[in-house]
Amino acid sequence: MKKDIIKYIFPLVLLVVIGGMMINSSISALKKQKEEEIIKQKILIEQQLEKDAETRLYLLGKFDPSEEEDFVHIPKEYNMSGYPTYLRKEALEAFIQMAEAAKKENVDLQIVSAVRNFNSQKKIWDDKWIGVTPVDGKKLNESIPDGQERFKKILEYSSVPGTSRHHWGTDIDINMTVPFYFQTEAGRKVYEWLVINAAGFGFCQPYTAKGPARPAGYNEEKWHWSFLPLSKKFTQDYARLITIDGINGFNGDENVKNMNLINDYVLGINPACL
Predict the structure, then answer these.
(1) Which helix (H) or strand (E) holds 174?
(2) Is residue 272 a contact partner of residue 204, using CB atoms and an 8 Å limit?
(3) Which has more pLDDT, 25 or 202?
(4) Residue pLDDT, tens place only, 111-137
(5) pLDDT tens digits for range 46-105
(6) Taking the mean position of all CA atoms in its chain, how far away is CA 50?
(7) Does residue 243 come out as left (phi exceeding 0), alpha (psi in the -120 to 50 range) or beta?
(8) Domain residue ranges of the chain, discontinuous segments joined by +
(9) CA–CA gap between residue 138 and residue 142 (Å, rounded)
(10) Would you call 124 helix, strand, or coil by DSSP?
(11) Is 198 exposed, middle or buried (0-12, 13-18, 19+ CB in 10 A)?
């Protein structure tokens, strides 16, 4: 009888032991899988943070375009500036196609200004701030001693360093950077051609005339055109990654906190370019 009981109980005990081992093994496997998933998530988060940090520097213009593989020299025949300058490859290719199409209609398109990194924009800004470069024929350090008002005056046409679309290598100034040129016969012809045709090559005018659709930001710039297939993403990244704490390092930067630079200027563009 005893032998019979053992005969029946032993397999049951064995099943319980094996079952327990299998359960423990499954729990261990699940635990290991969960630990591996946590490690993967941490790696992904770290990679994203690193990528965001690099993107942040790029958006602020804190890089040397000559060292970036995505940038190329603008050929002399399209470069009106007289000095070597760069543009993103895709933007330059699109501009050349546009310029060649315009040429067939006797419209000459030249690039006056393209990429400007933080230091280049800083020089433009600082020179206006201290009166080296006159604005409306006046030295602003003398004509507008109040820092906040001087800040606003320069913002009519010049971006604060760290907020310029020219940092991205997607935006260009065409032919002339002064309003009066586009009031001439030649300038009107250029602008009218761009309004009709530029979108077909991927370009958009960020700073259209102010009105209900664009109540704030820079004054109208008929010369400034942006390569939308790239700049649209950079605009979105700027809104996501940049805060006013990262906008500094130039004359008058103490006034940044009193201005809504990101919403009114960086994002205060032609809705068609968003």
Answers:
(1) strand 171-174
(2) yes
(3) 202
(4) 999 999 999 999 999 999 999 999 999
(5) 889 899 999 999 999 999 999 999 999 999 999 999 889 999 999 999 999 999 999 999
(6) 17
(7) beta
(8) 65-273
(9) 8
(10) helix
(11) buried
